[in-house]
Amino acid sequence: MTPTAAAPSPVATALAGLPRVVDLLAARAEEHDRDATFPYQGIEAVHEAGLLTLTVAQRYGGPGGTLADTVRVLAQLGRGDASVAVVTAFTLLQHAEQARRAVWPTAGYRRLLTESRRGPALVNTLRAEPGGRPGALPDTVARRDGDGWLLSGRKTCCTGAEALAWMAVTARTDEPEPRIGTFLVRGESEGLEIDPTWDQLGLRASASHDVVLDRVRVPADLALGLGAPRRTDGQEAEAEAELARAWHDLALSAVAVGVARAAQAWLVRFLDQRAPANLTEPANLTASAEPTESLGTLPRYRCALGEIEAQLIGAEELIAGLAPRVDRGERDAVARTGPAHLLATRAATAAVQQAVSLTGNAGLSRRHPLERYLRDVLGSRAHLAPDEAVLDAAGRAALERGARP
Description:
eight-stranded mixed beta sheet; alpha+beta
């Protein structure tokens, strides 16, 4: 009797649909970049493939995707459309956090999951404020109003703002001793307005606009983290914050490397179709006919392409090596994701810049996607902590290790 093959896991099923989704994203990416329009169809494709809820825990009926699964998905989505990838990333991070520590109230999260079964339900945490300073109290204020709160303020660089179903807004209370909490706000709430301020070099379709809140009502059960006064977080809360940052670091690193891989793939086609004697732009980069000799046959170009390959292999191995270690709860791996994010982003940026330098005018022409890849990989620095902060923390850690007996 022939044994019955086991059914593929939900994670495997979602991953199987990746190639088709990437192709769909790539087909529309130029249009959304040019017009700075939100890629609703791309997000719908990600949702239909089961990728937008990949990190929903199994106890909630989800696939239970790990960080290793997440970086694999985001690297591929980054090849298709970086804006779709970063919007997807922040929703996956929200579900992953809920899987780890159930911060959302049961009824609220059940509502989110119900919406996610009907269609894309995007979520993001809104922390950044115009002129905000690290460690300062948020300018966004929550005032008591009966059995709930009224939220007022402005958040900036809110990825996916115009399409978010839910926003997790950080704010301080107006109490004599302010508390900082996270307030779950519906995207269509009365008093909430999207100010279309996002007009950046890269990630133009991510709709990372400002969100303005004017006395937006939030029920008491959707105000999270107000139980403890400010500056009294324990070790458990600190460890969770570090883990959340590790997921963020590796997830956004994967997107940047995915963009660089797309740039490399375009460069390979370019080098295969450009004859050394012909320094003008090829008539058709997608033509099936190949020249008898191409730039790719020259050692100089092969070595430059090899340099790009080496940079991206290093970045991919760094991300792929750390992600499962973070999944296993290894604290030293968690501590290394900040420098990993910096190194991976630098490698991706350098790879795309080198691709542009190898192609000359063609690489900077809007007729081809390479200049968009360059803008998107440069734009990915918006999600990277300042170099000085990352390097200072790494230096402090090295000094502490050196001081141990």
